[in-house]
Predict the 3D structure of the following.
Amino acid sequence: MANDELRVKIFKALSDETRLDIIRTLYVNKKEMNCGEVMGIRDTSKSNTSYHLRALKEAKLIKVRKEAQAKYMSIEIDTFQTYLPGFLDTL
Amino acid sequence: MANDELRVKIFKALSDETRLDIIRTLYVNKKEMNCGEVMGIRDTSKSNTSYHLRALKEAKLIKVRKEAQAKYMSIEIDTFQTYLPGFLDTL
DNA sequence: TCTGTAGTTAAACAACTATTGAACTAAAGG
DNA sequence: CCTTTAGTTCAATAGTTGTTTAACTACAGA
């Protein structure tokens, strides 16, 4: 009941095929990916990829590990468990 | 993997506080509601309620039973089970 | 048949979203 | 120091979404 604001952000973040693809790939491959690899999932630009990754990050659906100039993305499993339990396995 | 089109529709439908409230109320109360009752969940107009109900219906998140001039809405449980198992209980 | 009730539809509009290209920051390696 | 690599940010633009008001359909009951 409590935090619908984050819930809405989560649903907005997942209501786009590009971002759904990113989440699916991160989940299925079960490993970190950097921005360049994520860019390769769909045929799009750096800036567009950055835009979608930010939406996912702000919805707490992915987490970002920074290592020197590179950034590594992975699924933020806790958020899925709390707000969408069972969802990842439907992908 | 297959039908991301419906998946996107589902997420879009749930990424709005009004529609989230409608789903929550329908689920928690575990009974059918007509358009007027749904309108009462949030302070809004008939046409706005109709607009939101259509989005939920098109995402197959609610089903509509027609009885004379009235319409009765209820949760379409199968869709939630298939695409968002466990979600309803987080509400 | 007239009136009220229940809900849909259309037009107008502001706010938001996704995409693109160009300019930008920042670190690594030669 | 210069160049490459990695990613962010900004402005412009087209398309989408939510809200409002008003007009509409359809049925029920007096």
